Q: What sequence folds into this?
């Protein structure tokens, strides 16, 4: 067992609770349980619960006192005493304060920020248990949308449980004394910034970078500071890049000068959707995947766990060898890495990407890797897909953002489905939604499902699904 979090300062026992008091101080009623949800006085009752299973975002599900509970920092089978914290939509959220029975899969979290940060909600579980829990949560989410014939494959675990991310974003704020603070937002509290210099996820520890930036910005007014820092790295080449978002040109220039010893590449993006401005070194990194080299602009998406991305490429290559397509349509191409890594050298490839900077990089990457029959197309995926004259031997590759497929693209795929489709997702809920729509509208059914643990310590799981007409 690891130390339980202290009780919130706002929870002060109330000697004579009543309805008037409850309205005044924000007491929240959770069926027959009462607890404080704000400042002031309120009666707080602790409850013993048995955790049934983990659900979305890593919450432990339990039932007790005629209520449904969501508890953080627990594992299935554990019996815990919890302190109610908040009620949302009829569900009581709570924090554990004591363990009556701890799971054998529990371990001390290997990060000093774990208790307050919330960015790694499964860090208290052993790596093998994390992978098994994610696999279980994924298949439970997809169950209604998978036919009996679908091959449900076991999850592919990550070889690295820490220091696996080649990109990590940190919010920049100011402490009470005006000095810069770098960190993450605690779970459920986007207004608060928690300093996280010892974060265990980035490939390269950021603590030294933060210390130098604090010194470099010692005389910079807080209003001039950038709002975010992306710390990016190329695993293949060992290069590092600091990407600053927002703030003034003077503050960005000071940062570039201050961190010269930490990185030779500093890029400033003045405002959302504005062009990146290199302040030191190149404005991109170069990474390898599937035997190819790919240019990654400062603001472009790329898989954050390269070792697992290689595993994904291996899975998909084996699938395509069984039924080689005539043409590959990468509908969320980014910089083109996955589509180019999967396509044969002589295969026609359409790399469709809505972000102009990433689409331009996809075109350069096609030339860099000698793919003369690959075209990079900038624009709306639904409109471009409809214009491609999709044939029966085409493969559509889908790797959308966390929100899933654009409704217009779903409709276009339903009107003219390709012979093969591979859907890659990092969000089981939106994946389940899209699988249900594609099955109902176009008769596309899942033939196989392959989960991969791209994001150890977190509740996120990457999933590849092969779809074919029924």
A:
């Amino acid at each position: 067992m690891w130390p339980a979090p202290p009780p919130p300062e706002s929870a002060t026992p109330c000697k004579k609770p009543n309805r008037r008091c409850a309205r005044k101080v924000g007491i929240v009623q959770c069926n027959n349980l009462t607890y404080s949800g704000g400042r002031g006085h309120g009666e707080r009752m602790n409850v013993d619960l048995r955790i049934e299973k983990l659900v979305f975002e890593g919450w432990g599900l339990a039932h007790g006192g005629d209520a449904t509970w969501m508890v953080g920092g627990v594992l299935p089978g554990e019996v815990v005493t919890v302190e109610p914290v908040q009620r949302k939509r009829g569900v009581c959220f709570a924090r554990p304060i004591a363990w009556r029975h701890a799971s054998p899969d529990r371990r001390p979290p290997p990060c000093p920020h774990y208790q307050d940060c919330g960015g790694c909600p499964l860090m208290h579980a052993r790596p093998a248990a994390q992978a098994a829990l994610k696999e279980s949560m994924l298949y439970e989410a997809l169950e209604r949308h998978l036919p009996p014939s679908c091959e449900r494959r076991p999850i592919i675990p990550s070889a690295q449980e820490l220091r696996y991310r080649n990109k990590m974003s940190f919010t920049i704020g100011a402490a009470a004394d005006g000095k810069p603070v770098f960190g993450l937002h605690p779970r459920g509290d986007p207004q608060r910034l928690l300093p996280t210099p010892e974060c265990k996820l980035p490939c390269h520890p950021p603590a030294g970078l933060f210390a130098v930036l604090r010194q470099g910005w010692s005389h910079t007014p807080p209003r001039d500071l950038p709002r975010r820092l992306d710390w990016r790295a190329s695993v293949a080449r060992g290069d590092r890049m600091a990407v600053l978002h927002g703030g003034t040109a003077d503050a960005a220039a000071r940062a570039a000068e201050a961190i010269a010893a930490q990185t030779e590449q500093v890029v400033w993006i003045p405002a959302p959707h504005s062009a990146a401005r290199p302040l030191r070194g190149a404005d991109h990194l170069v990474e390898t995947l599937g035997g190819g080299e790919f240019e990654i602009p400062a603001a472009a998406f790329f898989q954050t766990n390269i070792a697992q991305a290689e595993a994904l490429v291996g899975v998909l290559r084996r699938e395509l060898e069984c039924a080689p397509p005539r043409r590959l349509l990468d509908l969320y191409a980014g910089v083109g890495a996955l589509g180019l890594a999967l396509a044969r050298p002589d295969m026609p490839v359409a790399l469709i990407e809505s972000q102009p900077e990433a689409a331009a990089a996809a075109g350069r990457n096609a030339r860099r890797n000698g793919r003369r029959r690959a075209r990079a197309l900038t624009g709306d995926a639904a409109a471009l897909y409809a214009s491609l004259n999709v044939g029966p031997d085409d493969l559509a590759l889908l790797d959308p953002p966390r929100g899933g497929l654009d409704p217009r693209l779903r409709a276009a795929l339903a009107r003219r489905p390709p012979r093969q489709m591979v859907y890659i997702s990092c969000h089981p809920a939106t994946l389940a939604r899209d699988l249900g729509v594609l099955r109902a509208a176009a008769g596309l059914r899942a033939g196989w499902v392959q989960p991969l643990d791209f994001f150890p310590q977190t509740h996120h799981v990457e999933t590849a699904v092969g779809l074919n007409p029924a």
Notes: The first helix runs from residue 19 to 25. The mean pLDDT is 90. The chain has three domains: 19-106, 127-160+305-326+391-469, 167-286. The first strand starts at residue 27 and ends at 30.
